[in-house]
Design brief:
Elements (H helix, E strand, L loop, with lengths): L2 H39 L4 H14 L3 E19 L2 E18 H17 L4 H21 L1 E3 L3 E3 L4 H13 L4 H18 L3 H4 L6 E4 L3 H4 L1 H11 L1
Parallel strand pairs: 2-5
Antiparallel strand pairs: 1-2, 3-4
Length: 229
Amino acid sequence: MNKYQGFHHRSQSLFLFILLLLFLPFLFLVFAGSVMIAFTRLGIPPPLAYSLFWLSLIGSSINIPIKEWISEVEEIREIRFFGINYRIPYHGMKKTVLAVNLGGAIIPLTIVAYELLRLSGNPHLLSNSILGIIIVTVVCKIFARPIKGLGIAIPAFIPPITAAITALIIGGENPVVVAYISGTMGALIGADILNLHRIKDLGAPIASIGGAGTFDGIFLSGIIAVLLI
């Protein structure tokens, strides 16, 4: 590659990097706008919706420890010595911390509590919301998988799509609320709570309920479910 080609290649890379920097704020604005629309469709006043958005975004990096386990682990470690890889069995103790994520669990649960309180005067819609939670919980439980060293994982599109379809079928006059409640609670119960007994054997340093935070955790499951309707 001559000097001209090298300069041309570096110029292209710099241009793509600048383009990406300019595009990221646009993506953020689209995401923020989507969240605000979802909140207002849930009957939350715009000023409160704005505050909840930022609390969720900032809170996605905050994990509150609630329990810890010390467990025995057995694994194979590789050591390279003079160009040769040696596989050495390792047996030891590892600590796993169970935590609750502020932005991905606590704030969504607060919103769910608010919506359930609003539905207290509508027994039919309240019962449909509970039925929706059961349906999404069962589906999330089926698709959730334990992953060594990580925790419990589930394809991000499963909870919101299931919640949206369920809400369209049984949501009646207010499918938006049913979608959010079932998407949030179904993901929380089906993917996380019903698999808590598996966490201590996975060797993950921290397992956080809703720990994927705002973007692909419990919070976003409810938001996408609302926007899909």
